[in-house]
Structure formats: C-alpha cells, structure tokens
Amino acid sequence: MTPKKLAATLTASALVLTGLTAGGVPAQATTESRPHAPRPPAKNPTAIGYGGAVASVDPEATNVGIGVLRRGGNAVDAAVATAAALGVTEPYSAGIGGGGYFVYYDAKTRKVHTIDGRETAPAAMPGDAFMNDATGQPHPFAQLVTSGLSVGVPGTLATWDSALKSWGSLSLRKAIKPAAELADRGFVVDQTFRSQTLDNKARFAQVTPTAKLFLPGGDAPQVGTVFRNRELARTYDLIGKQGPSAFYRGPLAAEMAAVVKNPPKAPGATLPMFPGYLTPGDLAKYKVLKQDPTKVRYDGLEVYGMAPSSSGGTTVGEALNILTPKKLSKLSTPDALHNYLEASALAFADRNAYVGDPAFVDVPTEELLSKGFGAERSCQIDPDTAAVKPVKPGSPDGSYTPCAPGVATTERPDTEGLSTTHLVAADRWGNVVSYTLTIEQTGGSGITVPGRGFLLNNELTDFSAVPDPADPNRIEPNKRPRSSMSPTIVLRHGKPFLALGSPGGSTIITTVLQTLTNRLDRGMTLPRAVAAPRASQRNTANVTAEPAFIEAYEDDLTPYGHKLVLAGDALTSAAEIGAVAALEVLPGGGYLAAAEPKRRGGGSAATVHQLWPR
After folding, report:
1. How many beta carbons lie within 10 A of that of residue 551, not counting itself?
2. Rounded distance, CA 584 to CA 588, Å?
3. Which end of the chain lies in a sparser environment, N or C, as judged by fewer CB atoms within 10 Å?
4. CB-based burial of residue 4 (10 Å sphere; 0-12 exposed, 13-18 middle, 19+ buried)?
C-alpha cells in the first residue's frame, strides 16, 4: 500500500480504530502557569499514522523518541533515547540508577530477543540483611527502602549499551544526547511531578543531595515552573564521551559505592539509613543477560514476554493458558471478569511458589507455560464461585490430570513497589521494542548520588525479607530479585500485532493481562483497553481495584464472592493501577500508539507521520 493510500485509509478509520467519537477526543493536557510562562508539549494519549511510533508516560520523552525515528534511527535507537529522556522527566520511576527488561522484535529475522538488565545483589550481601537482630523480625519497610541496604547493582545503562550494540544504528553517545540536552534546558513541571515529589518529601528531606536537587528551597517544584537537572546533563555527557565504563568503573562507580555505604543524612534525619553492601567491584563485574523470551499461543496469536528473573512472562503466559479453555470472548462481562480474576490468582500462586532468579533456583519455566499445566489449573476455576484465597499452587511436573488439586505451600507477602515506567517503540522497517525500566519505589532508595543528578534504586526490597531456604526469592549474593515487569510483544502470523507493558509492581502482571483480554476477548479497541478501569487479583482475600472498576462491577462480582477494595499504596496518593504504554500494528503497516489518557497525569503517544490527531 502506498503512503497516500495508507494515509487515506487510516484517516478515514481513525475514530473507529481508537474507539472515540468526534466529541470524545481527549483534551490536551494543561498546567497551572503564569502568562507567557513556558508550556509543556501537548499530550495526545492516542495517535495514528505511519513511519514509526512511540508511546510513554511523558510527552517530552515521546517527542525525543519520535525525533530519533524522524532522523533515520530505528526502534532500538528510539527506545534508548526515550528511556534516557524518562530518566530526566520521570526521575522517580526510572533512570541509570536502576534496571529493567528489554524485549525486541527483529523484522529481518522475525525473531524476538530479550535483555535482562535487572539489578543484582552485591557479592557481600548476607541472606539476613533485612532482619533486626534484636527483634528477630524484618526492619520496617520504610526504614529498608530509604537506605543503602536496598540498593542493587544498576543495570539500565548496560541494557542501553547492549541493545544499541546488538540491534541499534546509533552510538550510545548519540542516543542519549537529546536527553542530556533536555536535562540541561529543563522541562515544565506538571501536577504529577509535583505530587510525586510531595509524596516523598518527608524522606527526600532527610537525604542531603536529594533535598538539594528535588526540594529547592525546601519545597517540591511548583507546577508550571521549569525544572533543570544540569548535574544529570553532565553525567550523560560524561557517559557519552567515555561509554559505560564511566559508570561501571572509575570515580562515578566509587562515588555510588561510597554513598550506599554511608548514605548522606541531612541534619536532624530520623531514618536510620542502614549502610549497604555495594562496592566498585560489584559495578565493574555487572553483566546483562540475553535469553530466550517466554512464549504462549492464545487465540492463534503468539504472546512473547520476559523470562525469569522476571515473573512477568511466566505469569501472564500461564494465566492466558488457564483462560484458553474458558473462551472469554463468548462469556458475559461478569463471567469474563470472574474468570480473569480467578486465573490471575492461580497464576500468582505458582509465581510465588516457583519463580526466582534461574541462576539460583530451578524454575520450571517450560512447565509453567505448558498447555497441559494451564488446563490442569483452569479446571480449578468454579464458573459460579470465587475460590477462597490464597489458593494453593499447582504441580508443574510434566504429568497432568484433568483436574489436579493444588499443593500445600507457605504464603509470603508481596514486597514489590508500585513505581516503574514503560515505553514502546516501532520503526518504518517493522522492528518493535517493549521496554520496562525502574528504580523500584517512587523515588527509589531516596539516595541521590551527590553531584550526579540521579537516584539509586531500592530494588533489593523486592527480595523476601525473611530468610527461608524454600523461598525462591530469598536474598543471596549476586542474585537478581524476582520482578513482575512484563514487557510484552504479540505476533500474528509471525509479525507484530501488539506491544505493551506497564509500571505497577506486582500489579504489572494483572494490568498487562487485563489489557490483553480487553483487546483480544472483550471487543475493545486498544485505547479503550488501556483506559478501561482495572482490578488486580494476586492470590489475596480481596481484589484491589480502581474506584471506577468498583463502581462499574462490584454489584456484578459480589455474587461470585469477590470482595473489591480500593487500590493504593502507603507511599503514594493515587488509587490507580498501572500506566500502560502500547502500540498496535494496523493493516497496511500503519501504527496506532496508545498511552494512558488519565493515569499518572496522562501519557503521550505519537507517530512519525501523524494522521490523527492533527
């Protein structure tokens, strides 16, 4: 199809593809600002066009990625550039002080590749690092999170370098240059950035370099003002000139290790800020892992995800296998939601029992993703009644019966934070990236490397706090903590159809699963699937849900026995679940890019040649 014919086709069908009416076009974002004050770029949560696409939670970052594509870069170049820009505008969710998972579809080979850039525990990390010797109980989470103890060896920069060297066309220096320029000139503060800063004000104020950078004058930056991070701009410039070795070796590595060992307390700080175990040697030996993706077939589609150390690919994949016999597309909305919630609980039971870092744990990945195991677990779903939670895990042993009961196990609390960010990118050649990156909690460890402009992660709090030899996610030296990040690419006839992912801690898994079933089974367009109200069942007595979900479906789901409670996190102010960034490949090769219309202040989607909205 020629570009002219494609443009005509996509323009004519734009409103149908987005599921919006002419009167329902999302309004562009606004901020509180004075006359003649700088304005942020417009946020379009949905875009249709061709030549490539980017979606993320932030318009500045999306624009950076689109700029790379327009200058001839490919999807990998755009993804790295967008991620680097998110390190500027979303510093509490992502950045070079953290890690993540990168999933890539190569149009030439028609293969899906992944990079595990997860943080690792330092080599000297003891198994009881989170325990209070005096009480025999774990230290309170609020004390662990804002401390050196929580900081793992960062993997984000190594992920960018590996992706660019493997599949990119730009050097690392060129890929991160637009983000360095953005950090230097600054961005306009919106309500989300101010609110996230205020949510963390009490702990940020206790860390001297963090308070200096993010609480100028003792307060969060005001909406409508320009926030510049020239320290980060200089750090990006240094990395651009010297490469990843500037981060993983030399003075910067020594500075990171020093600040973890001796967190810089502000006068009057009340948090203990325990010292951590990160050393320059840990940084010098860090390596990303390239590994096969997870894969399941669902409704004739191939769904690819991230294998352990993430639990995202196995848990989303297993849940889809559990749902396959249920044929959600033929069920009523209450029945479909009931089955979605029950499948999530069953898959989470198996996640908690069996998934950890495969370098330390024998994870039965192949069996967790097998059709036989999925069918055996599917039989546990009563069509009329929700099971009493927690449900027992199954036995992914290769020997499956029509309806086997679960096995006894120890239930362990979920410790994964709710922050993180996600982006998708695609190019004119058909390459696609789905990339989730994080520093864990909103604001990470709260520890900014002095003079360097970035926060360090608190990723090690994803480990189970209580040492237990039977726990696949117990703390061990050099181990990757289990993650729920679920960057996903869906193929149809061997070519990309969907790419998506989300932040949200362990709710990432249910967010991706619900968005997939919304799009594939419930007749929603991709923007509607992203915007729809969410609920998350992670094998707990109650279902956490957004207010709109409770309002819409509580009466329908109560008869099954589901108890809906408001979602939320003690360290945040929003009762939201996830913040999806996604794209869909349209007939003829066009793209529909979709981001959140409201969650986290609304995301931003764009295409290289944008046909809608104009």
Report:
1. 12
2. 12
3. C
4. exposed
Encoded tokens for 58: 């932030």
Mean pLDDT lowest for which of 20-24, 288-292, 471-475? 20-24
- Beta-carbon contacts of 611 under 8 Å, excluding residues fewer than 6 positions away, are 7, 10, 11, 14, 48, 49, 50, 590
DSSP of 337-350: HHHHHHHHHHHHHH
- Of 577, 576, 602, 443, give the one whose Cα is nearest residue 507: 577
**Residue 213 DSSP SS3:** helix
Strand order in the sheet with 535-536: 535-536, 543-545, 564-566
- Is pLDDT above 50 for 320? yes
DSSP secondary structure string for all residues of 359-396: TTS---HHHHT-HHHHHHHHTT--SSSPPPSSPPP---
In the block, which residue shows the tokens 């700088």?
38
Note the Cα 207 to chain centre separation in Å.
26
pLDDT at 579 over 60: yes
CB 499 within 8 A of CB 488: yes
DSSP state at residue 306 = P
Please write the tens of the pLDDT for every residue from 407-450. Answer: 766 555 555 545 689 999 999 999 999 999 999 999 999 999 99
How much is the pLDDT for 608? 98
Closest CA relative to residue 310, chosen from 99, 539, 101, 581 = 101
The vertex-550 CA angle with 547 and 552, nearest 5°, equals 110
Structure letter (DSSP) for residue 91: T
Is the whole model's pTM more than 0.85, yes or no?
A: yes
pLDDT confidence tier of residue 39, bands split at 50, 70 and 90? confident
Q: How far apart are CA 237 and CA 307, in angstroms?
A: 33
Nearest to 438 by CA among 466, 417, 467: 417
Residue with tokens 């934070």: 417
Q: 404: pLDDT confidence band, cut at 50, 70 and 90? A: confident
Chain segment 352-383, per-residue pLDDT in tens? 999 999 999 999 999 999 999 999 999 999 99
**Residue 506: pLDDT above 90?**
yes
Ramachandran angles phi, psi of 531, nearest 5°: -80, -20
pLDDT of 161 > 90? The answer is yes
Decide the pairing of beta strands 111-117 and 99-106. Answer: antiparallel
Q: Which residues pair with 301 in a beta bridge?
A: 298
115 neighbors 475 (Cβ within 8 angstroms): no
Residues in the chain, how many? Answer: 614
Distance of alpha carbon 240 from alpha carbon 38, whole angstroms: 29
Q: Compute the C-alpha angle 279/280/282, nearest 5°.
A: 65
Q: How far apart are CA 230 and CA 303, in angstroms?
A: 41
Please give the average per-residue pLDDT across 106-133, as a whole number: 98
| Cβ-Cβ contacts under 8 Å for 376 (sequence gap 6 or more) | 394, 400, 401, 402, 403, 404
128 within 8 A of 467, measured Cβ to Cβ: yes
Q: Where do we find the tokens 């968005």?
A: 515
Q: Which residues pair with 117 in a beta bridge?
A: 100
Pair 255, 456: CB distance under 8 Å: no
pLDDT at 317: 98
Domains of the chain by start residue, with CATH:
41-289+415-612 (3.60.20.40)
Active-site residue set: 420
User: Which pLDDT belongs to residue 23?
Assistant: 32
